[in-house]
Amino acid sequence: MEVKPLSDLKPGQKGTITKVRGSGHIHRRLLDMGVIPQAAVEVEQVAPLGDPIGVKIKGYHLSLRKEEAANVDVEVS
Q1: Exposed (0-12), middle (13-18) or buried (19+): which is 55, by Cβ within 10 Å?
Q2: Contact at 8 Å (CB) between 29 and 71?
Q3: Which of 4, 5, 38, 57 gives 20 to 30 Å between its CA and that of 46?
Q4: Tens of pLDDT along 13-63?
Q5: Number of alpha helices (DSSP H) and beta strands (DSSP E) in the chain
Q6: What ranges in 1-77 are assigned the alpha helix state H?
Q7: Beta strands in 1-59 (DSSP E)
Q8: Rounded Cα–Cα distance for residues 71 and 58 (Å)
Q9: Neighbours of 17 (CB within 10 A)
């Protein structure tokens, strides 16, 4: 399996979160939104300039900034 930052995935790609990096408020915000290791994630849409990225995690939809998504490692399935 290949591990990539969430920000590198294309619409329709799915995977499992392996690690949430970052520090301070970004890390805490991601965890509070349910972006946690072992959670399944699917990229639904990416804005034309790459920011924001629409994802589906645990059955709900999130919009993440590219810098936030870059802190999330995903094992692509």
Answers
A1: buried
A2: no
A3: 38
A4: 999 999 999 888 889 989 998 999 999 999 999 998 878 999 999 888 999
A5: 2, 6
A6: 24-32, 66-69
A7: 2-5, 14-20, 40-46, 53-57
A8: 18
A9: 20
